[in-house]
Amino acid sequence: MAAGRPSTPNPSDQAILAHERTYKTFNIILRWCMTLLAAVIAFTTLWFATDAGFVWGAIVGLIILFVGYNFLVKHEEHQPLDVWTEGR
């Protein structure tokens, strides 16, 4: 490779495909962790630190889990694997 010339990635390169799959898996796991952490923090805060109690904490936690799944996890699961796809 000549100095100063940018390289164009080969979309059929196995190393790039493995990296894309790993990146997508990591991204989905990270989004699940963010969603679950937000739901657990809201649930335990409402349960122990307010008068809302267990039931309202569970309801709010489930709502946060549902909204987080729809806006964070589900969105990323339906994205194409190729990160260079137009419109991603």
Summary, kept brief:
Helix content is 69%, strand content 0%. The chain is mainly α and 88 residues long.
- Quick one: biggest sheet? none
* SSE order, one letter for each helix or strand: HH
Mean pLDDT value: 85
Number of helices: 2
The secondary structure category is: mainly alpha
* End-to-end separation: 29 Å
What general outline do the C-alpha atoms trace?
Answer: rod-shaped
Low-confidence stretches: none
Secondary structure tally: strands:
0
- Approximately how much helix is present in the residues? 55-70%
- What share of the residues does DSSP label as strand, in percent? under 5%
- Rg from Cα: 20 Å
Q: Could you describe the 3D structure shown?
A:
This protein is an all-alpha fold and 88 residues long. The chain has a domain at 36-79. The protein is 69% helix and 0% strand. The protein has two helices and no strands. The longest helix is centred in the middle third of the chain and has 36 residues, at 14-49. The protein starts with 13 loop residues before the first helix and ends in an 11-residue tail after the last helix. The mean pLDDT is 85.
